[in-house]
Amino acid sequence: MTRDHHIGMIVPSSNLTMETELPRMLRAREEAEPDDRFVFHTARARMRHVTPEQLRAMNAQSGRAAAELADARPDVVATACLVAIMAQGPGYHCTAEEDITRVLREQGSTAPVVSSAGALVSGLAALGARKIAIITPYLKPLTKAVADYLEDAGFEVADALSLEVPDNLAVARLDPADLREHHRRLDLSDVDALVLSACVQMPSLPAIQPVEDELGLPVLSAATATAYRVLTELGLEPRVPGAGRLLAGRVPVS
């Protein structure tokens, strides 16, 4: 019997990628597991440039966006802007998820809440990674904020690459094929995992599996980690073909 799973997403107003990559992954899962179908509902929060001021302003809109999504009665809600949360300081994903959960409950929704920031932390933990490298599209101060956040969560960030693209629409236009070369600029000699895109706006899905196959170590992104958490919160096996080890169905679900 076919089951429909309704997924709510809170995304920046300038986001073009999360609404592409997450559905693409779950469509691939539908082809492998046709009994499960996925329906998407999106609320937007205004943000054009990846600056601390606009990130804080976007976070302030999450309650309004959550209330709008509650009307669709989603089965899970994902708030998808990693740096907006990580730039607020260590552990802030817990606060953000709790705030959105409270609004959903006030509106009669029982949906669990996932953040891309929290999903990346839990995805790395699920892989057993301790020493990692990351690629971001951000300016160096924001990349440092992301690295500090991950360090506080218990990971050693051995190396980080900043592509330094401040305009969020320009981030969406970056060619994911370039990531197959960018990772060569990192020292990966002793890492447990590579975060190929620590940003849900920087396209990376077509490069995840090829880079993982080349390196022989787990490769993930904020988007693949979010897919992992969405599927586990729905009680489904986190398996998506061709999306890296985290979604290969071989990682134990805690």
Automatic annotation (TrEMBL):
Keywords, sorted A to Z: Isomerase
Superkingdom to which the source organism belongs: Bacteria
Modified residues (S-(2-succinyl)cysteine): C81
Catalytic reaction(s) noted: maleate = fumarate
UniProt-annotated binding residues for substrate: N15, C81, L82, V83, Y138, N168, V200, Q201
Active-site residues annotated for this sequence: C81, C199
The keyword Cytoplasm appears for this protein: no
EC id: 5.2.1.1
Oligomeric form and interacting partners: Homodimer.
Family to which the UniProt record says this protein belongs: Belongs to the maleate isomerase family.
Function: Catalyzes cis-trans isomerization of the C2-C3 double bond in maleate to yield fumarate.
Additional facts recorded: Reaction is initiated by nucleophilic attack of cysteine at the double bond, yielding a covalent succinylcysteine-like intermediate.
Name of the featured protein: Maleate isomerase
Species the sequence originates in: Amycolatopsis dongchuanensis
Taxonomic path: Bacteria, Bacillati, Actinomycetota, Actinomycetes, Pseudonocardiales
Annotated gene: maiA
